[in-house]
Amino acid sequence: MGDIVIGVDGSEASHRALRWALEEAQLRDDSAVVIHAHKRTVVRNPYATVYPYVPAGNMQVETDYERRMQEEQDAYDRRHAESTIQQALDQVGWSIDGPDVRPLAMARDPAKTLVEMSEHAELLVVGSHGRGRFAGFLLGSVSQHCAHHAHCPVVIVR
């Protein structure tokens, strides 16, 4: 009895992978860790390059502004990631009677995160391709990376 790690990104392929993985978790009496990892959005001050110099005393004001803007962006990204997981669970019709599900949203590289999470998993499940630019490819870059580097068996659902 262990964890099945499932990567979701809101794509139809990830919904199919989630549905398959939840059914598998129920058959095995395993728990499921549903992960949405995304690269962190870095906020830059759009006015930082307007002035060739920063007047004395303004550097701290600019730094505080950028920090607040980054915190707001991080909070927005976290809410979006949590929403993506919840929408995926709703889409596949997961119920409280199903397997134990632990959602995990984080601002990290998706492929590396899933590979790291596979170290303590019985199974890693991902969709064949996600929301990348090249949706027509047979395998996406995340699923391909997981297939080559995961520490447990990988199921790629088409």
Give structural notes:
The structure is a single chain. With 158 residues, this protein is an alpha/beta fold. It has one domain: Rossmann fold, CATH 3.40.50. It is built from 4 helices and 5 strands. It has helices at residues 12-28, 58-92, 110-117, 141-149; strands at 3-7, 31-37, 101-106, 123-127, 154-157. Strands 3-2-1-4-5 form a 5-stranded parallel beta sheet, with helices on both faces. Helix 1 links the parallel strand 1 and strand 2 (31-37). Helix 3 runs parallel beside helix 4 (141-149). The chain is elongated. The chain starts with a strand and ends with a strand. Mean pLDDT is 86; it is low at 133-138.
What gap, in angstroms, lies between the N and C termini? 26 Å
Largest sheet: 5 strands, parallel
| Estimated structural class | alpha/beta
Query: Which stretches of 5+ consecutive residues score pLDDT under 50?
Result: 133-138
Helical stretch tally: 4
Return the string of H and E elements. Answer: EHEHEHEHE
Find the CATH superfamily: HUPs
CATH topology: Rossmann fold
- What is the oligomer described by this structure? single chain
Task: Indicate the CATH architecture.
Answer: 3-Layer(aba) Sandwich
Large-scale geometry: elongated
Give the total of beta strands.
5
Strand order of the largest sheet: 3-2-1-4-5
Summed up, what is this model?
By secondary structure, the chain is of the alpha/beta class. It has a single domain, classed as 3-Layer(aba) Sandwich (Rossmann fold).
